[in-house]
């Protein structure tokens, strides 16, 4: 099944929207039923294609948010103000309707539960999505590797999966989460209140001696900063895998 | 045919502008930034523009010398091979005709070369006669680096990939030499009115 | 949009490379013909906002690959990649 997920034929399929979940004011999850879905690995994505009646097409990539163990394929999409595809997926598309997608795609930015090394996940904004697939996969398999997540958001309202992350942490699944809110914080906020920096990374990251597996995802500048900070702190670049999201198109 | 997404229209695309819009293009209101690499940043004190190749003596202008050349402001329509067109865009620049004044050459071909390594080729005839400018202002403001500043080539009658950003010179040549995109699938001339997008078009 | 947002990585062209090579390529390793450094395709710099895709070496910024797609054809230039290594 895992091997098929990286070699399966890449053809366009139709997924039917089973459920729409509003995660934050700008972000929603689309839970899709995809017949003949070959299965996927945590961290992979799909390409979504929209076609207008006059034949005009637009295509974008979206990370899969659901664990491989889930029967349905969940995409979590941020509606970008100047976007072309995201305002359709978040706002126009209705339950019961179909969307064209192909996948799963990707093999580099992937985490498998059999991996024994401690896991460090660093996400900025919607970069949390593929990391959430890894976290859900970790929980579903009761994986042994301990996980630390450092998650940067603008404000508490923008934190995607907030309640689920709190629940997974409380349920002693081996997950610890550190949030940083960079623009505004609620009264009594006890998490970080600034952009990621060396001090924050030093407090959250696994010690070098643990040789952790690291996945960083988010806007390019965020990913480059986080990666540099880790390497400066002594992490081997070979431990770090990155995925850059752009604001291009949307 | 692919599955039609109910209610999907894509970005508002105005294709109704008639004779000003070449085939397959749509008009946009914004000014998309296309980039094949990192944006070069050259201090004006280090910038120069040159004419080299098949001519008696290469010519070079520093930024100050270049800005002392007669310039003009033109309003033109621009057409990108990625299908967007922008009408009535305002540019200020030195016409290539002015740059070539006094240059004796038998060369039929030109290659524009740029910071960052980009190149594009054109027949010299496409650069003459107020068809091309070295533009340093867009819409009355100094040209933004992301749009090719400090100066870019502007050749509005061809697809916009010929309007090389971050231009630093023109090489006049006896032989045609396909540039960055022309050597990798894009049409050698790129006339939007004949929809010359790819090899073989 | 910040300029840096225009630079993505090989993950962004995983689907396109799958079309061309018919297998997952983000774990493939490229050796830069310019500086000789080796990077996973998932890690290389990718510029998509262009008439074609331009892939650059993260270390020296030289072009590793150019991919253009149009009129039912692909044009691929791999001359900037001295060697491409991937598992069966």
Strand and helix layout:
The complex is a heterotrimer of chains A (250), B (201) and C (88).
Chain A lengths: L1 H6 L5 E12 L2 E7 L11 E7 L5 E7 L9 E6 L7 H4 L8 E8 L13 E6 L3 H13 L6 E7 L8 H9 L4 E7 L16 H7 L8 E7 H13 L7 E6 L5
Parallel strand pairs in A: 7-8, 7-10, 8-9, 10-11
Antiparallel strand pairs in A: 1-2, 1-6, 2-5, 3-4, 3-6
Chain B lengths: L25 E2 L20 E6 L5 E4 H5 L4 E8 L4 E12 H4 L9 E6 L4 E5 L9 E6 L2 E2 L9 E3 L12 E7 L28
Chain C lengths: L6 E3 L4 H8 L7 E4 L5 E3 L4 E3 L5 E4 L6 E8 L2 E5 L3 E5 L3
Antiparallel strand pairs in C: 1-4, 2-3, 2-8, 4-5, 5-6, 6-7
Q: Which runs of chain C of at least 5 residues are low in confidence (pLDDT < 50)?
A: none
Q: In which order are the strands of the major sheet of chain C placed?
A: 1-4-5-6-7
Domains counted in the coordinates of chain A: how many?
2
Biggest sheet: strand arrangement of chain A:
4-3-6-1-2-5
Largest interface: A-C, 25 and 26 residues
Q: What is the residue-mean pLDDT of chain C, rounded to a whole number?
A: 93
The rough form of chain A would be described as globular
Please tally the helical runs of chain C, counting DSSP H or I stretches of 4 or more residues.
1
* SSE series of chain A: HEEEEEHEEHEHEHEHE
CATH class of the largest domain in chain A: Alpha Beta
Number of helices of chain A: 6
Unreliable spans of chain A: none
The main pleated sheet of chain C reads as:
5 strands, antiparallel
Can I get a quick summary?
The complex is a heterotrimer of chains A (250), B (201) and C (88). Chain A has six helices and eleven strands.
What tags apply to this protein structure?
heterotrimer; A: Elongation Factor Tu (Ef-tu), domain 3; Rossmann fold; 2 domains; 6-stranded antiparallel β-sheet; 5-stranded parallel β-sheet; 6 helices; 11 strands; C: 88 residues; mainly beta; 5-stranded antiparallel β-sheet; 3-stranded antiparallel β-sheet; 1 helix; 8 strands; globular
Structural summary, described in words:
- Chain A contains six helices and eleven strands.
- Chain A is α/β, with parallel strands linked by helices.
- Chain A folds into two domains: 104 residues, Elongation Factor Tu (Ef-tu), domain 3 (Beta Barrel), CATH 2.40.30.10; 127 residues, 3-Layer(aba) Sandwich (Rossmann fold), CATH 3.40.50.
- In chain A, strand 8, helix 4 and strand 9 form a beta-alpha-beta unit.
- The longest helix of chain A is centred in the middle third of the chain and has 13 residues.
- The two termini of chain A are 31 Å apart.
- The model of chain A has no long low-confidence stretch (mean pLDDT 94).
- Chain B has 201 residues and is mostly beta strands.
- Chain B has two helices and eleven strands.
- In chain B, strand 4 and strand 5 form a beta hairpin.
- By secondary structure, chain C is mainly beta.
- Chain C has one domain.
- Chains in contact: A-B, A-C, B-C.
- At the B-C interface, loops of B face strand 6 and strand 7 of C.
